[in-house]
Amino acid sequence: MLAMNYRGPYRVRAAQKPYPEILHPGDAIVRVTRSCICGSDLHLYHGLVPDTRVGMTFGHEFIGVVEEIGSSVQKLAVGDNVIVPFNVACGMCAFCKQGLFGNCHESNPQATAVGGIFGYSHTAGGYDGGQAEFVRVPYADVGPTIIPDWMDHDDAVLLTDVVPTGYQAAEMGGIKTGDTVVVFGAGPVGIMAARCAWLFGAGRVIVIDHLEYRLDFVRNYAQCEAYNFRSMEDPVLFLKKTTDWFGADVCIDAVGSDASGSALQTITGKKLMLQAGSATALHWAINSVKKGGIVSIVGVYGPTDNLVPIGNVVNKGITIRANQASVKRLLPRLIDHIQAGRLNPKAIITHRVPLEEVADAYHIFSAKLDNCIKPILIPPSARK
Questions:
Q1: Residues of the chain with pLDDT under 50
Q2: What is the extent of the structural domain holding 202?
Q3: Which end of the chain has fewer CB atoms within 10 angstroms, the N or the C?
């Protein structure tokens, strides 16, 4: 089958790989109809995530058609169109029973931290992902959700990660009616977090980024304020000033380890690898939020240390909430929001690229070319 193949930092290609096999009675094989490149995939692409092995197939955002099922699978049938959450979750461990599907204790040998994730290095279980024609889906009775007949499949593929992660970012912020919410990062997740902040009652939503085309997009899509930090002497000072010197009620870090904006963070975190990526956005979030405020983190950081101003967290009485989105828990309400017209996920898709051109797609997305917001990959069989 055709699949994305990782060859090292900044090097991916489309290549032939073996067709996946049923390895456990609870597995399913899914024929992929759409997959996405996520901003989190760029952390892998840039070499910022440990134990990302040559030969791996990325892709934790995909939908498709069930082609085969294991002997114990009861909730799926061959031919079902399914949303596959990015979490690989058993559904039975102590954490899954709490709805913490992103922290499953059985799907990842290194589950003292994150649970299993499709296509996201061996720190997240070593599962091949969905930037391929076919993918093995473990625990097939737990994660996959049948796509409603009325739903556009472009909306469905964004329910695998982008929409749930943006929504959970807002949810973890504990947003109350009238709150000022600042989102750092105008990538797909930041755009969705800004849009979802209104659903929780925000009175003011501000997005900070440095790419004008993304700032223009989020202004229109999320109906929010958006500012370029390159035009500011100090983003923290700007945000304090615009909030009557109190700070924002909620700050959301939707950037993670690839953040720009600080020479020190870039050199130590992205050039010399002395910390787990650049924590610039997290610094700004901690220093911009009000005393007693909440910082919500959905940007991806590696499992090693970061330079973070923990003293400010303590002295300001800040609550920090962070996690991988528990997609399965959120799907029912997000499907309802889409059906009611409150969310329009597919509007953020800007590029549809054949899987054969995956290397070009990564370059365009990574280099921020052609006003790219969100690219999706279409396998050959889905174009017939």
A1: none
A2: 164-322
A3: C
